[in-house]
Amino acid sequence: MKEIQRTIKYEADRVPGFGREVMSVPGCEKLKDCIQCGTCSGVCPLSIYMDHSPRQVMALVREDFKREVLSSCTIWLCASCYACTVECPQQIRITDIMYELKQRAIQEGFYPKRFPIPVLAQEFNRMVHDHGRISEGRLVTKLFLKTKPLEAAGMAGLGMRLMKTGRFSLKQENIRDRGDLARIMEAMDAPASGGNGKD
Amino acid sequence: MANGNGNNRTSPERRPRIGFYVCHCGVNIAGTVDCAEVARYVGTLPGVVLSRDYKYMCSDPGQELIQKDIAEYKLERVVVASCSPLLHEHTFRTAVEKGGLNPFFFHMVNIREHNSWVHTDRAEATAKARDLARAAIERVARHKPLETKRVPIKPVTLIVGGGIAGIHAALTLANAGKQVILVEREPTIGGHMAKFDKTFPTLDCAACILTPKMSAVGAHPNIRLLTYSEVVKVDGFVGNYKVTIRRKPRYIDEEKCVGCQDCISACVFKQPKFTDEFNEGLGKRKPVYIPFPQATPQVVAIDSNVCLNFRNGPDGSRVVSDKCKKTCVEACGDRNAIDFTQKERFEEIEVGTIIVATGFQAFDAKRLPAYGYGRYPNVFTALEVERMVNASGPTGGHVVLRDGKTEPKTVGIIHCVGSRDKKTNRWCSRVCCMYSMKLAHLIKEHTHAEVYNFYIDIRTPGKGYEEFYNQLLDEGVHFVRGRVGEVTDWAITPEEEGKLVIRVEDTLAGVVRRIPVDMVVLATGLEPRSDAQEVRRLFNMSCGSEGFFLERHPKLAPVSTFNDGVYIAGACQGPKDIPDTVAQAGAAAAEALSLIDKGYVEQEPNTAFVLEDECSGCKSCIPLCPYSAIQFDDARGKAVINEALCKGCGTCVGSCPSGSIVQNLFDDEEIFSEIEGVLAYE
Prior knowledge:
The complex is a heterodimer of chains A (about 200) and B (about 675). Chain A has helices at about 20-25, 40-45, 55-60, 65-70, 75, 85, 95-105, 115-130, 135-145, 150-155, 155-165, 180-190. Chain A is an all-alpha fold and about 200 residues long. Chain A has 2 domains: about 10-105, Orthogonal Bundle (Fumarate Reductase Iron-sulfur Protein, Chain B, domain 2); about 115-190, no CATH class. In chain A, helix 8 runs antiparallel to helix 9. By secondary structure, chain B is α/β, with parallel strands linked by helices. Among the domains of chain B are: about 20-145, Rossmann fold (3-Layer(aba) Sandwich); about 260-345, no CATH class; about 360-525, FAD/NAD(P)-binding domain (3-Layer(bba) Sandwich); about 610-665, Alpha-Beta Plaits. The longest helix of chain B has 21 residues, at about 580-600. Classes of the chains: A mainly alpha (about 200), B alpha/beta (about 675). At the A-B interface, helix 2 of A face strand 27 of B.
């Protein structure tokens, strides 16, 4: 039998100020203008899989339902095709808002564990941050281990064979002067601004 | 007080006794400007014998205060610091005149629109108000007595546009016994309304209620109907406009044609072959045609672009070739109404007032490629469907797909096409919800199809409109709240094969849906006509940011424009439905009537005049005058300004190399003293 759950939202479910905070980020201001027409969901190629449609995400942000938004799979399914941003009659930069929400979800640890998209984003960022360069083999392996550890173990044999023939490498590539990069990254991370480039 | 400001200036021999009033305007001014301080300061200026602050100067007690003070304090000049002169200059001039002074011994200072409404710092706003008041005190002392002139009004009204607005305004004026000249660009009057089948919410037939009014216009002794004509030039001023009208050749003598249409059946083209504009391109017509059966005037027209009796001339225009057998002329016989020698003519008329009722154009649905108009044949615009449901339309009242025979089983009507969208038109077109529901009803009635309405919000704020919405819900029409993402022919499921699929979020159900339909109807919005800017310039009007003609005041002068004697009515002012259009047309006619029955207009005396002794006769002012008000007197070798035509713009004054043109109310002494007043810091 279908389990019956409470769906009502109380004032305590809101995080007052969350909507205002998101809408104060450059590029996200127009969210205030949303008329809830649903064009974004109508054009979104992935809206058919989303738990909340992009339109609902807009409404939830504006009404401060932080937990619901940040734990939604919608923001991670967004493939940034920008169709919604192009078609929105209020010219809301919906894709950019999705990016902002993804950042916040990672920073606050809200995202669904083992969900590959945020893990990939994080590992990608970490690799660029530390080494200045992406080593694909290493990145994919890390992603695999973190999201599907058991399946990854089963692929170990194939990986070894590929490595032997020189088609796959776990070697970490680096840029020449990593000291400079570290100083740049340090300077970027230093100010207490909200956006620290962890994407 | 630091009165070192005025000592080194040429002062009038004796300073007149000046009274100064500063208005609080409730909190509009007093909220930002310290009015008591302004009054105190101005009271210390030379010549000021009385300085007051008062809550509402424009109120009756405020005006009476001025009159009483003039007598009691023997005031000779009055300055009021309040709102824009646009609003109350006339009020105060009248008060000053009632007090026994020349009304031009008055000057008004705008400390509301130019000060309190645009500043936040109270100290600075107060200082600015002091400066502006000081400038006015300096200036008003040098004002000279002036007289307003009365100019008679020609009791003839020009109405531009023969849609329902123009028709209604014309009949209202003509029935009041006034002469009307109605100019229409197309070969017939009727406008958009003539194309409609039924009208919401009562569903009465558009032709049944419109055509009697059209024939009344055609037959009215007080209305001169000029169809197939356009206004090309407007000169003059309120009460005395000179208008040039281009009469395009229709190659038919309107006096002789009786509308028998024998020529149409006799035309060498046996079948109609050319796009019929009246039927939105769904039907065909011949080169000689009458737009629709009840056209007014009942006169045919010949389209020289497709008629075989014309060929391309050397400059691209169409010239008579005389190559056709001219079976039409034969059929016309002794009536001799067909005249291939007609040329474009220009006619000049003189009118006193003008009503502009040029209407709207429908949004071009091709601008929204996601909806597939022009790409998928079975995507229609609402006007096309409107013609199809009409019994005298191209399909004889059958709603069919583009193949001309298949009746649709499912129809999707998409609202807000080109409306409420910042990428196209931001405004709500006001009529689309209602006409979409009307079409939904009519389509269901004609075809028994399932009809879906896709809407953002249903807007039914009118008498009987919400009830009509309820009726539609009862009839089982589907309403899906969501703006359509796209229309596509890409089928995913078997039931979508061969259909158009509408992809939309059903925002109330909270799911994305794909709905296959046979026919898509786009409820296109209303927008300004593409030549609205040229028309605006022609009649010296303004346009709002959307491009519709701008009314003088959105609430209190909704049919007036900034050009006196020119009124606007109907959808050229903004999207509106038939009831609102007719109401506005009546209002515009009443405004014109009130001006005509008054008989005269008062002209501002701020005109320019030439100091004959100093004029060198260089003629540099003559081509610069935007109103052609300056003539050259050859006998005396001097420029002469026609006061009746002068609008007081000051262009000639600034351009005169010898400084021999002076403008009343703006002579050098007045302007320089005002400048010195505003710049004189303590």
